[in-house]
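Lecture 7 notes: from sequence to structure.

We start with a single chain of 133 residues. Read the sequence below before looking at the structure.
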Amino acid sequence: MTKQSGPSYVYVGAAHSTAGSRGGIFRRPASGGAWEQLAKGLPDDAHVHAITVDPTNPDVVYLGTHDGPYRSVDRGERWERLDFPRGVQAWSVLVHPTRPRVLYVGTSPWASTEATTQVRRGGSSRRPCCPSG
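Now the structure, written as tokens:
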């Protein structure tokens, strides 16, 4: 069951690669309108690799960034970094389809700890899953 508590949004992530470009996450109403940058709680130079909206609650949005995974519980107004090793980039985030309190975070293929990591939704526990090799 999907919880609907407000307007629907389209999200776009970017990594700035040239001087003067902006990285981060942006959103606009699905019905149209202006794009706005969502930065509260994110690093100034956020490189967004992945965006995942919780399929059971669209208020909850996850990001995979060069600084690890982040979560917003208010459709991107504010972000918090999840418990994840420092220095490991999060390149993908997936909410488990039948256990929505479980996230899978894929890391950079160049990371020394390359693997998919299972993160409990509160960020309170994590464990390796599906190690590469």
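Confidence is low (pLDDT under 50) at residues 129-133. Keep this in mind for problem set 3.
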